[in-house]
Amino acid sequence: MSAMFRSSRDVIIRTEAWADAVNFYTSVLGLAAVQRGEGMVGFETGEFRLYVEKGAAHGPVFEFLVPDVQAAKAQLLAAGCEVVEEDAQLPRCYLRDPYGLIFNIGTSGT
């Protein structure tokens, strides 16, 4: 049985030039910072929430929510996806699909 995937409003980018990026999104684009943490700032953009995270750069990461992360992960791996990064403490499971899109799967709580 397929997991029911639905997108969240979250898009994450990661950069080593974190302070410069935060300044850019605040000052140049005029986005409101709605969440601040150590090494991560969330900006409200209207249609999605952009998170800028401190760390080694990678392209934008979208998020899909599922009722059971482990079942969805197994299904995606069987379909040719590969784990890019995983951290159970966050929790975070970044996967790359066979077509190059990197996304996170998180729990929808349903």
From TrEMBL:
Residue stretches making up the Glyoxalase-like domain: 11-104
SUPFAM superfamilies: Glyoxalase/Bleomycin resistance protein/Dihydroxybiphenyl dioxygenase
Signal sequence extent: none
Organism encoding this protein: Dyella acidisoli
Lineage, uppermost ranks: Bacteria, Pseudomonadati, Pseudomonadota, Gammaproteobacteria, Lysobacterales
Listed InterPro entries: Glyas_Bleomycin-R_OHBP_Dase (IPR029068), Glyoxalase_6 (IPR041581)
Name of the protein this chain belongs to: Glyoxalase-like domain-containing protein
